[in-house]
Amino acid sequence: MEESGRKDRALRVDGLTNGRDLGGLERADGTRTPRGVFFRSDNVDRISPSGWEQVYEAGIRTVVDLRQPQEREGDTQERPAWLTTINVDLDGLENTEFWAGYWDNGLVGTALYFLPHLTEMPERAGAAISSIVNAPPGGVLFHCMGGRDRTGMIAMILLSAVNTSSEQIVGDYLETVRLGDLRAASSNRNNAEPLLNELCERHGTTTEGAFRTALAGFDLCSFIEAADLPESDRAALDTWRGSILETVVSPCGSERPRGT
Fold this sequence. Notes:
Elements: H1 6-9, E1 20-21, E2 38-41, H2 49-57, E3 60-65, H3 69-72, E4 84-87, H4 96-99, H5 114-120, H6 122-133, E5 139-143, H7 150-161, H8 166-178, H9 180-186, H10 193-202, H11 207-217, H12 220-227, H13 231-238, E6 247-249, E7 255-257
Parallel strand pairs: 2-5, 3-4, 3-5
Antiparallel strand pairs: 1-2, 6-7
């Protein structure tokens, strides 16, 4: 599989091991996703003071944190005054009936829960998307703990919204898997990727297969309706905050001028 220019898109920041620009990926019309608009990463609490300077140089001005409130309580590092942080609890653990089928059995660490979560709690991902597309001017970085699945779900939505090639979206997700050893070393843990793949195999698929199934089954228009995103959010989503200029047919079938 093509590696989607992964080295070229890497966000080189001291303290991050899984950061990258969502720009530079091929779209269905042969153009590429704009650079410097949306970034994904692992937990930003590990970023050093010099790393925050690198974040600033990358043009990022807002961080959208997808973690649970109790996860944020463990943060210890001071953040720069120029940074805007927006907290969005993507999981929604209060929905105990839903999580009973995905938490204790480990499936929360796989893409097998993506479509069920988007179906059961679309407002959660909708709140994350709304926060990202309505952030203050500048690049927007969104993250969870490892930058794998919560971050991967939101990246899938953002990339799908601008008709990014399916193979490019899959490649972006798998880049986190490829970084398994490095991610594990940075947190003094063993690489969990082999075990997660085995878990997927016990459910009749693989890490890659689970994500491909989620991507193939994801219906952007149904999600937008279920999440009740307002028209202004939809416009910001399918233009990536006005950074896509051409007039094309959006994934939901309507034609609109892209950008301003």
